């Protein structure tokens, strides 16, 4: 079994890692994409395109449509800069965009906090099952909903 560790980027280091990953994916790092990434990285819980549009609009001094944000977020997800939390129709920043792997999320229904888990053993088992069933994976996302440790304290 192969296990790997990640460098968890933050701040300017995260912005630089995201820019590098996006350029490596063959995309451009524009001022608007930078603004969207910076806005997304401010959230501690999954953010909707509308949440991000509000922040970017304020920072740009002009209205930025959510449709524009959705297009950029799609690029970010494709380039591994962000993950989509399917059940919330919202996004979180990927703190290690240089590493691709399956997404396993623990989603707190009370505070909306999301913990991103990397588990090579679970991923390997799932890929073995997929292969045995001749299934072509487009995207692999696992979400487990419940209460985080902070919210489950009574």
Automatic annotation (TrEMBL):
Domain of life: Bacteria
Coiled coil region boundaries: none
One Pfam family here: FUR
UniProt keywords, alphabetically: DNA-binding, Iron, Metal-binding, Repressor, Transcription, Transcription regulation, Zinc
GO BP annotation list: negative regulation of DNA-templated transcription; regulation of secondary metabolite biosynthetic process
Cofactor binding note of this UniProt entry: Binds 1 Mn(2+) or Fe(2+) ion per subunit. Binds 1 zinc ion per subunit.
InterPro entries documented for this protein: FUR, Fur_C, WH-like_DNA-bd_sf, WH_DNA-bd_sf
Chain positions recorded as Zn(2+) binding sites: 108, 111, 148, 151
GO-annotated molecular function: DNA-binding transcription factor activity; transcription cis-regulatory region binding; zinc ion binding
Binding site for Fe cation: 102
Cofactor(s) listed: Mn(2+); Fe(2+); Zn(2+)
Similarity comment: family membership: Belongs to the Fur family.
Name of protein: Ferric uptake regulator, Fur family
Species this protein is from: Zymomonas mobilis subsp. pomaceae (strain ATCC 29192 / DSM 22645 / JCM 10191 / CCUG 17912 / NBRC 13757 / NCIMB 11200 / NRRL B-4491 / Barker I)
């Amino acid at each position: 079994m192969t296990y790997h560790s990640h460098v968890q980027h933050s701040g300017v280091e995260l912005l630089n890692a995201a820019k590098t990953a996006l350029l490596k994916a063959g995309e451009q790092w524009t001022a608007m994409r930078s603004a969207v990434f910076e806005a997304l990285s401010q959230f501690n819980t999954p953010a909707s395109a509308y949440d991000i549009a509000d922040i970017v609009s304020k920072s740009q001094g002009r209205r930025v449509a959510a449709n524009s944000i959705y297009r950029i977020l799609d690029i970010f997800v494709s380039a591994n800069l962000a993950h989509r939390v399917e059940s919330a129709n919202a996004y979180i920043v990927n703190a290690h965009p240089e590493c691709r792997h399956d997404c396993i999320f623990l989603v707190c229904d009370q505070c909306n906090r999301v913990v991103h888990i990397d588990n090579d053993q679970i991923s390997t088992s799932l890929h073995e099952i997929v292969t045995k069933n001749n299934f072509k994976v487009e995207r692999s996302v696992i979400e487990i909903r419940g209460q985080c440790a902070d919210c489950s304290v009574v």
